[in-house]
């Protein structure tokens, strides 16, 4: 005890603003359920596993830790399954999700000798007791960040908060023991901030919740704001305030005053209820999607190094599928596993390693590749009876890689390809000071576009990229006769494909070679400005690669726009061989006898290429009551995609400070990080700026815009007039032969890249393995013809 007293100065009592980690080690995936439990630093509130806590002591000198250990409660084997009374999972009366229950024990541990003191104990200094109680009762930072991400949009300040009139009724609200004024409900209670009425919340779809008394009270009185009792703590921003007229959770900057009106001292209140966002998260992450995926094939689970599953955090399968394949490449394995230990990454990390990309990539690499966490779980799969693994949750990695990105930091489904591009860009920028160690370079290659003008002169446009995005030429289908017969049969019976089973539908089969040939084929560029002819003309563009990467990533453009800009997913099979040879796609550069186009494009030509608002879109928006200027801006910033897209842009940009400024074609108003990402792909700066403006700042849409607007990349910019570009070796790009072997597939199920489910198949040790979130097993039939993104490894 004296040892503890001598170190009291190193113990902090957490404030409401502190991030407290108590569910997962910040440099490994150890948890309180791990053999050694978890150690929470009582000064920084970072958590460490048994094998790593000494490193933190050596680095910080912090000696006092709260040790948390969870052990499984024993459950009788003959315990009958409860009959569900509600259509829900993980709630009372719902389906039994068979999750084990745990008992939690605590102790105070003092390093370096791991001296242990029991907790709770009246003999402990009061400061230690208060600090530990605060940690134990706090919502962990892991949970807080997950809840924050699940909330799709940031809460806004209510327009009613600053003008709220409170009735002087003399009501004083007690700190506990609340009950609905109109029924017997004692949970999910809301305090109306105008008159002090305590009423129950809405009735949920499954019969849980309240009896709608709070919302009915609003309809009767129009009193706008209510706060959920049980969510009020010293951290007032975390309280659940709801605005009925705005129909949303909101912020009340005067909440302290509004509570004081009813005698509530928020500083002494404890959290006893979930907020709306927490409840929504709880319902969504408890639902196991894999239990409703009945593929009909027996999955043989596989365990060991390189076979670790990733827990779905809620619509995070796009991240899981991508990272499983990325960490199957030698470049990422070497950078974040073989040649960088966890201790090395931790020693280089800042004070908070949870915010360091290098640390979290190393943590994820060791988690996936060490085999430490790829072991059969104690509980078998409830639906199949098979051994399963629990997998590791990539929460901290997701928080770091998605930082400041509005979409990836949400809990919405995302495009796996867009995430891959985002990952490559972040890793490359993080490796600026050590480019030789940059693993993302293994995906990079050079692209060269040759422009042949009718004058006979040529221009060359060079850039770098890390994906080949391929259109699918349906006219090259190899089963045209079967397709024609199927379509005739379907038309004769008056059937839609929705009325037919999957086995009955005949889909086009297009060879991958046809997609690659289409990419490399000549293409006419209309309205091209020729600096040789000093006028507009039609030129011929051909595209090739100046280098071949270590890993070739092929993106199949299965999502296309139909008439009216309606997105559609092509229902098509791509016949992908195990080995491809793209040697014929190498660009040869300036050839003997070729004459380069003169330098320079007149300013008026560049000005004439600036985007102009579509008059029909503008007219429709103006008829809805929007101003002409706002409508023009909306059309331009959505590339004239359509009325709905322009409307969405308008609604989300009405509060922009420059919304009323005249339209300017200056190029200084794009996000610098997005611009840097496009520049890292090798696009010219003026083209990248134009693409970002045309796509509303979306990197993936900007990339597509450049690919779909060749005029922008060649006719509206100064085409290279010399052949002095660096060779692949000089520019640091990998290069080699053109033969590649297929080793990874990201497949997508669903009608849009922003919904559905992603799965990865990876060739490991001579066999295909499926990675479906935390399920890892031998694949009996890898869907080589149904991939969305294909990963190839160069053979030489």
From TrEMBL:
One Pfam family, short name please? UCH
Domain UBP-type: start-end pairs: 156-266
> Any idea what this protein is called?
Ubiquitin carboxyl-terminal hydrolase
The enzyme's main class, written as a single word, is hydrolase
Annotated keywords: Hydrolase, Metal-binding, Protease, Repeat, Thiol protease, Ubl conjugation pathway, Zinc, Zinc-finger
Can you name the source organism?
A: Arabidopsis thaliana x Arabidopsis arenosa
The role this protein plays is: Recognizes and hydrolyzes the peptide bond at the C-terminal Gly of ubiquitin. Involved in the processing of poly-ubiquitin precursors as well as that of ubiquitinated proteins.
**InterPro entries assigned:** Peptidase_C19_UCH (IPR001394), Ub_carboxyl-term_hydrolase (IPR050185), UBA (IPR015940), Ubiquitinyl_hydrolase (IPR016652), UBP13_Znf-UBP_var (IPR041432), USP (IPR028889), USP_CS (IPR018200), Znf_UBP (IPR001607)
Source superkingdom: Eukaryota
């Amino acid at each position: 005890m004296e040892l503890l007293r001598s170190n009291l100065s190193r113990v902090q009592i957490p404030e409401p603003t502190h991030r407290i980690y108590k569910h997962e080690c910040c440099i490994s995936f150890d948890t309180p359920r791990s053999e050694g439990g978890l150690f929470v630093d009582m000064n920084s509130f970072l958590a460490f596993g048994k094998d790593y806590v000494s490193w933190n002591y050596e680095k910080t000198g912090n000696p006092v830790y709260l040790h948390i250990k969870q052990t499984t409660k024993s459950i009788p084997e003959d315990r009958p399954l409860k009959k569900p009374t509600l259509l829900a999972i993980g709630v009372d009366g719902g389906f039994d999700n068979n999750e084990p229950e745990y008992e939690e024990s605590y102790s105070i541990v003092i390093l370096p000798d791991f001296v242990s003191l029991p907790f709770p104990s009246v003999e402990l200094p009061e400061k230690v007791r208060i600090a530990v109680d605060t940690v134990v009762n706090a919502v962990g930072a892991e949970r807080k960040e997950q809840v924050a991400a699940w909330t799709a949009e940031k809460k806004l300040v209510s327009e009613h908060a600053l003008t709220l009139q409170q009735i002087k009724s003399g009501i004083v609200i007690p700190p506990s023991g609340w009950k609905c004024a109109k029924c017997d409900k004692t949970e999910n209670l809301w305090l109306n901030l105008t008159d002090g009425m305590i009423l129950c919340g809405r009735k949920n779809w499954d019969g849980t919740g309240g009896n709608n008394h709070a919302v009915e009270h609003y309809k009767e009185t129009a009193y706008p704001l209510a706060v959920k009792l049980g969510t009020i703590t010293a951290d007032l921003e975390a309280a659940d305030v709801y605005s009925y007229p705005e129909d949303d959770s909101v912020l009340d900057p005067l909440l302290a005053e509004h509570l004081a009106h009813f005698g509530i001292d928020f500083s002494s209140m404890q959290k006893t209820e979930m907020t709306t966002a927490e409840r929504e998260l709880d319902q969504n992450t408890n639902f196991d999607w894999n239990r409703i995926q009945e593929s009909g094939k027996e999955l043989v689970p596989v365990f060991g190094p390189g076979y670790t599953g990733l827990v779905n955090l809620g619509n995070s399968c796009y991240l899981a599928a991508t990272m499983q394949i990325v960490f199957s490449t030698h470049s990422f394995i070497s950078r974040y596993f073989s040649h960088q230990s966890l201790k090395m990454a931790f020693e280089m990390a800042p004070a908070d390693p949870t915010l360091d990309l290098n640390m979290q990539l190393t943590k994820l690499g060791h988690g996936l590749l060490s085999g430490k966490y790829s072991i059969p779980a104690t509980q078998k799969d409830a639906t199949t009876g098979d051994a399963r693994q629990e997998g590791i949750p990539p929460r901290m990695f997701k928080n770091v890689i998605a930082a400041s990105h509005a979409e990836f930091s949400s809990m919405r489904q995302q495009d796996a390809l867009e995430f891959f591009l985002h990952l490559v860009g972040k890793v490359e920028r993080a490796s600026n000071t050590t480019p030789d160690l940059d693993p993302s370079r293994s995906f990079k290659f050079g692209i060269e576009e040759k422009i042949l003008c009718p004058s006979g002169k040529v221009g060359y446009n060079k850039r770098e990229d890390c994906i080949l995005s391929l259109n699918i030429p349906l006219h090259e289908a190899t089963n045209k006769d079967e397709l024609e017969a199927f379509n005739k049969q379907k038309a004769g019976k008056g059937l839609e494909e929705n009325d037919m089973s999957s086995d009955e539908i005949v889909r086009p089969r297009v060879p991958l070679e046809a997609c690659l040939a289409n990419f490399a084929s000549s293409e006419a560029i209309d309205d091209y400005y020729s600096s040789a002819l000093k006028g507009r003309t039609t030129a011929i563009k051909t595209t090739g690669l100046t280098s071949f990467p270590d890993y070739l990533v092929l993106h199949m453009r299965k999502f296309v726009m139909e008439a009216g800009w309606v997105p559609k997913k092509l229902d098509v099979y791509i016949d992908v061989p195990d080995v491809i040879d793209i040697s014929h796609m190498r660009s040869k550069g300036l050839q003997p006898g070729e004459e380069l186009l003169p330098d320079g494009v007149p300013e008026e030509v560049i000005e004439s290429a600036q985007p102009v608002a579509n008059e029909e879109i503008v007219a429709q928006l103006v008829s809805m009551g929007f101003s002409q200027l706002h409508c023009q801006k909306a059309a331009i910033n959505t590339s004239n995609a359509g009325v709905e897209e322009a409307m969405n842009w308008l609604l989300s940009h009405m509060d922009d400070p420059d919304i009323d400024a005249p339209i300017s074609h200056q190029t200084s108003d794009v996000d610098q990080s997005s611009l840097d990402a496009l520049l890292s792909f090798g696009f010219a700066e003026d083209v990248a700026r134009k693409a970002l403006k045309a796509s509303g700042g979306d990197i993936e849409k900007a990339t597509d815009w450049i690919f779909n607007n060749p005029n922008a990349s060649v006719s509206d910019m100064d085409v290279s007039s010399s052949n002095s570009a660096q060779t692949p070796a000089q520019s640091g790009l990998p290069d080699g032969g053109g033969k590649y072997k297929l080793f990874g597939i990201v497949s997508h199920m669903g009608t849009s890249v922003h919904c559905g489910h992603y799965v990865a198949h990876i060739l490991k040790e001579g066999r295909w393995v499926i990675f479906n979130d935390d399920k890892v097993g031998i694949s009996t039939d890898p869907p080589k013809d149904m991939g969305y993104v294909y990963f190839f490894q160069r053979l030489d």
